[in-house]
Fold this protein.
Amino acid sequence: MLNPKNKNIVFIGFMGVGKGTISRALIKTTKRFGLDTDDLIESMENRKIKAIFEENGESYFRKLEKKTAKWLQKNVKNAIISTGGGFFKVDNLDKIGTIVYLRSSFDGILARLKAHENADLKLAKRPLLTDEDKARTLFEERSSLYEAKADMIIDVENRSVQEIVTDIIQVLKLKKD
Ligand code: S3P
């Protein structure tokens, strides 16, 4: 089930669904290396995503995502890659690895974010989440697009991180070494 060319796993899904959390748990269990596209972009630019949006706008950020996608395709193997919520739109997504869509309802995502001890920070660092109505519309627009790009869909709502990780390991036949 893993993309035989590069054996990467790529998590896609809406902001706040838990791509980073699931990815880090899978990295720990499988002892693979992991990368996050927002982290790569922040280090390339030496500033936060929020500052990139404020200073250069969303379209500039999307160009950085495309550049990151090309770099991942060319250079990364055997890794677990978590992505920003809009990264799935890059042209070469299917060439980067096996695509795992983490799915939840919008209300489930909001509840997860609001339950977090740093809830304000989690919301404030995401420019496209500041207006809840706009975020809900974006979620509705994107839901079927995420599904269309996915090799595998994992429902995450009301499930523990461990359960989800166990599922992914089984379906993708990963070794826990
Ligand atoms: C975005 C999601 C963010 C980040 C940027 C844009 C989006 O990542 O890449 O704010 O378009 O959905 P997270 O999904 O990690 O919040």
In short: The pocket of shikimate-3-phosphate is lined by residues 15, 38, 49, 84-86, 126-128 (CB under 6 Å). The chain has a mean pLDDT of 96. Residues 58-75 form the longest helix (18 residues). The radius of gyration is 15 Å.
